[in-house]
What we know:
With 940 residues, this protein is of the alpha+beta class. It has 29 helices and 40 strands. Strands 1, 2, 3, 4, 5, 6, 7, 8, 9, 10, 11, 12 and 15 form a 13-stranded mixed β-sheet that branches. A 4-stranded mixed β-sheet has the order 35-36-40-39, with no helix packed on it. Helix 1 packs across helix 2. The radius of gyration is 42 Å and the shape is flat.
Amino acid sequence: xxxxxxxxGHDSADPFGTARLRAGVLAAxxxxxxxxxxxxxxxxxxxRAGYRDRLLTELAQNAADAAAAAGVPGRxxxxxxxxxxxxxxxxxxxxxxxxxxxxxxxxSGKTGGTGEVGRFGVGFTAVLTVSEEIEFRSTSGSLRFSRxxxxxxxxxxGIAVPETEGGFxxxxxxxxxxxxxxxxxxxxxxxxxxxxxxVDPVALLEAMRAEAVDLLLELPALSEIRIEDFAVRAVAxxxxxxxxxxxRIDVAGTExxxxxxxxxxxxxxxxxxxxxxxxxxxxxLRAPTRSDEELTLxxxxxxxxxxxxxxxxxxxxxRLRELAAGYADFxxxxxxxxxxxxxxxxxxxxxxxxxxxxESILEELRDNPxxxxxxxxxxxxxxxxxxVAAPSRTSVFPDLTAELAELLGDVLDPLLIPDLxxxxxxxxxxTVGVHRIGSARVAxxxxxxxxxxxxxxxxxxxxxxxxxxQLAVEELGALAVPLADGRTVTGPRTVLLDDELxxxxxxxxxxxxxxxxPAAAHPLLARLGARRATPADLLSDPALQxxxxxxxxxxxxxxxxxxxxxxxxxxxxxxxxxxxxxLPDSAGGTxxxxxxxxxxxxxxxxxxxxxxxxxxxxxxxxxxxxEALRAIGxxxxxxxxxETDPTGPxxxxxxxxxxxxxxxxxxxxxxxxxxxxxxxxxxxxxxxxRLLSGERTxxxxxxxDGYTAWWLRRYARIDGVALGGYRHPADxxxxxxxxxxxxxxxxxxxxxxxxxxxxxxxxxxxxxxxxLLEALADPAKTPAPEVVARVHSRLGxxxxxxxxxxxxxxxxxxxxxxxxxxxxxxxxxxKPWFGLAVPPxxxxxxxxxxxxxxxxxxxxxxxxxxxxxxxxxxGHETGWDREPLGVVLRRMFTLGxxxxxxxxxxDLRVRLSGAxxxxxxxxxxxxxxxxxxxxxxxxx
Length: 940
């Protein structure tokens, strides 16, 4: 409640020269009739808004500065007797600079040095929220402020009082008088306030008691606040080398404990319960005292940040992101099990400041090392948390056990410690980029490990508790398994725990089998799919694939495969490479099974007459049965090609090279219908019905980027038109440009399933682009203007990803009016306001963002380059923030701050020249950064 040095060189009766200060203020009021009104209004505004409910806060900040300046513990004592409120404090006494600040309303006597809180010199105005008779008693001299004496001084000085509604109220703090009273015993300064009649002393003191704890946290220069008989004391101590400080606050016999960490620009605090830190409740930004900026952070933030004069809001442009610097060090200073509590919980921010701070803190936590990770050799026995890593580099295995951590510590390095791997922390750890590693990833990584069989057995033991349902079984489907022959293979489903080939129902000469190493055998492998040589397992064994590659027609292999296939219930579980098995055909030779059809296959009727497919012999079909032959790939319906992680167009699919070249990256899996090029053109309606009816083929028709839908869009033709030239009946984006698919009887779900084969702007490629340009130039088409504009926008947006050199610019284009015009007469609308003046039958319209690209695609000039516009009337120059219509327009059109000039016109006309010559009356025009607007007028 003071400055930093005592006043000297003044009359002892008036040590601060208040008579001279009063004379100067009165002279200013006399010379400027408006100055008195302005001072009164400024003081009243601060009282009503800026400093409401901040009396103790503002005076405590001054007390903290005084204590820091004097280098003594700050102590505040509040008493209330006979409606007189007294607030005394220890510290540096009042000085002349402080007096000037108190009476100036707009300046401060503080230098901005270390530890000083106030910056604006207006916080003392808070006393006016409760009093109009104020005394500032200090050991260096005392002052008195009074509204009534100020009113009397105005009368005595002959200064005219402004006339206001309800009567003029003069300011209180502009005129100060010397006062003989001194602060109470033990105090260096004391503020004495005569409470107004409308102020409830009991409620006022109760509100101050509620603020006391927060003020001791916010203002470390204060060590005690006493309000009547209610005392709050704070004691702080350093917590070793952690960088933390423990703050213990005694609240009338009840103790609160906080841990504090200081960074360059901020102090962070978390409450402590039962010796462990816990997340703070949603709070507000403190700079250093409470503001109105709501926060949802897990720690209290007391920041060094520029605030508005009333300290309620952050100044625009304040560097909020810098406050997050060092937050990761704060997290690292906490015990390992408590560190995640400092991660802001997922949720909505409560303010713009809250959003920026949350984002900055998450970035700080994401990229800096603080998260405790597993260390096989901690190095320091009493500090097992010594090793830390940045969350963005850290992996977490949910519910990790110590046994599994020992096995995977070097595989998933860095790996989060088991104590933090539970579901309690899952959501917050995800927000800082910790990679969640499940059983599937462990299985994937296991494929490259070289470990002894005993290690694998220990891994299976550690993983077994996590296999609780079928999903967990599937996730471990790629787990590596060591074999007795020294190899390590992927997938328990491909191995045998022991040799039970003799237990098969019929002797079959099987040449392949994978046997688990005895030292690695474990019950988990059986749960994961290792079986006793079931037919499906044997037919899916990679060893069989190798056998078929080398000897596809071996009689023993043919016999064993077909007999096993006959008892497999789920043909979809069998691998497609069984189709390599060679079988006799009706022409007297042999062919791979996937090049043969059954004698009565319906696919035969859909193929071209010279189809390369053969037909399996009737004898083979009768001996082994149609189901066994279909199980290994003999055709009945359309065949499927499947490969995981394909590396190139080597699947013998028609024009596969072109499709592959158009992909941005290799697909993770290839699933495609083969031999589509063998379908007769006249049979496509029936062929599509067949494809829609197949459980495996139907999903492929809707995969826009997949090979099947791509091929059908290009090459499957109905009535001479490729499927990609038809639109879905529900697709209004292309209404009037492309016809609907002319197959009758298709249901809504069927049409949706065919969506990937039909034209769609979302999958715009060169073929569709050429089709659309042709349709746009066709006068027989009648698309709506909005459809035309949307298609033009999509075409322009696709220019950067399409090879437009393969497209010839059209001779005819579609104008905004719907007319088809010569390209030589067309202009691309690149600046929207030209559309208000140029005839719509000359304009080709897209979005402004894509207009330039559309000009390149269509080889048309932008309208702004071919048409010159001149605004005929200068209008009235104003600003967006000064013109009422400008304010309305910004809100109507959601415009941001406009940097240019606004000109208002009663008659806004534009003269066009160049490619278009005319004079037009328009409501809006833009010329550079100047916007012209027609002022609304009464209807005529």
